[in-house]
Amino acid sequence: MRIGFAGLGRMGWPMAANLAGSNIDLVVWNRSPEKAHSFAQHYGVPYVDTPSQLASRCDIVVTMLADDQASESVHFGDAGLFASLNDLDNTHACIFVEMGTISPDHLASLQQKAHGQRVIDAPVSGATQAASEGTLLIMAGATALEVTALGPVFKPLSRKVMVLTNPGAGCVMKLSVNMLIHGLNQCLAESMALATSAGLNAEEAFEVIEHSAAAAPSLIYRKNLYLDEANHPVSFTVALAKKDIALALELAKNNGVKMPQSEVTHRQLVSAAQSGYAERDMAAMVHFNSVL
User: Fold this and answer.
1) Where are the domains positioned within the chain?
2) Are the C-beta atoms of 154 and 161 separated by less than 8 Å?
3) Cα–Cα–Cα angle for 48, 107, 81, nearest 5°?
4) Domains 2-166 and 172-290 share a fold
5) Given this model, what pLDDT does residue 91 score?
6) Which band of pLDDT confidence, cut at 50, 70 and 90, is reported for residue 202?
7) Per-residue confidence at 190, pLDDT binned at 50, 70, 90?
């Protein structure tokens, strides 16, 4: 079984690296060719020049893409993943596993246009450290049988796979989880701003939060970023957080759900992005909330 991996960004690179280290027959592609070349050279795996070539050479294709727009281009472009499906003379991937954060509507579009091939939503929870350690949580909108068949792909990447059975359920849960994470991030930023504005040391203030009832794993493993964001690699940008919340709010509107807290979080993220924070880590919201 040959696995194709599309998207070698902050999350995709370490995920693909874990697959490469698991004796999997792996082929990679990335929008920036030099990154695919570098990965291929470092891990001794082949790369291809187009998504279409990836689909035509592999049994399963995993995508780790930033948003709907990137996914649209990679799947539906002239040399996209689905382009090879029109060529009946080619062998091509029979399963496409979407592991990035995309909207349920976009997933449905992929499933409708996949020429009968299986498209499975299996987004992940966990930042770059979890991606490197292979301890991501996978939320699969697939049956237990399908998840078992994808075990060789999922096992090197994750600590747990949630079987959510229904197509699209993974996408919905990913937005629900990220909405909560970004809300916690905003509350942490305000809490730290309040404490430090009153004269408390930032490290002491965070230590109190860390040992309080308000502590959460997503806050704790980002401690170094919260305390010294500028001197640590970006893990998850403000721009991506803004995108996630916007997708969650759109889903909520379509389902008649009120989300006032997330609307506030979204406004803050939009304001931060407009103020030059877009490509900074979302931990930069601590600084943004401290600036009057």
Assistant:
1) 2-166, 172-290
2) yes
3) 20
4) no
5) 56
6) very high
7) very high
Q: How far apart are CA 198 and CA 190, in angstroms?
A: 12
Q: What is the mean pLDDT of residues 107-123?
A: 93
pLDDT at residue number 96: 96
Please tell me the class of the 2-166 domain. Answer: alpha beta
Q: Is 236 a residue whose pLDDT tops 70?
A: yes
Block residue for tokens 């090197």:
156
Mapping DSSP onto H, E and C, the string for the chain reads: CEEEEECCCCCHHHHHHHHHCCCCEEEEECCCHHHHHHHHHHHCCCECCCHHHHHHHCCEEEECCCCHHHHHHHHHCCCCCCHHHHCCCCCCCCEEEECCCCCHHHHHHHHHCCCCCEEEECCEECCHHHHHHCCEEEEECCCHHHHHHCHHHHCCCEEEEEECCCCCHHHHHHHHHHHHHHHHHHHHHHHHHHHHHCCCCHHHHHHHHHCCCCCCHHHHCCHHHHHHHHHCCCCCEHHHHHHHHHHHHHHHHHCCCCCHHHHHHHHHHHHHHHHHHCCCEHHHHHHHHHCC
CA nearest 18: which of 122, 28, 97, 67?
28
pTM check: above 0.70: yes
For domain 172-290, give the CATH number: 1.10.1040.10
Report pLDDT for 159. 97
Question: Would you tell me how many other CB atoms lie within 10 Å of the CB of residue 116?
Answer: 6
Q: What share of the chain is helix, strand, coil (3-state, %, to 5)?
A: 55, 15, 30
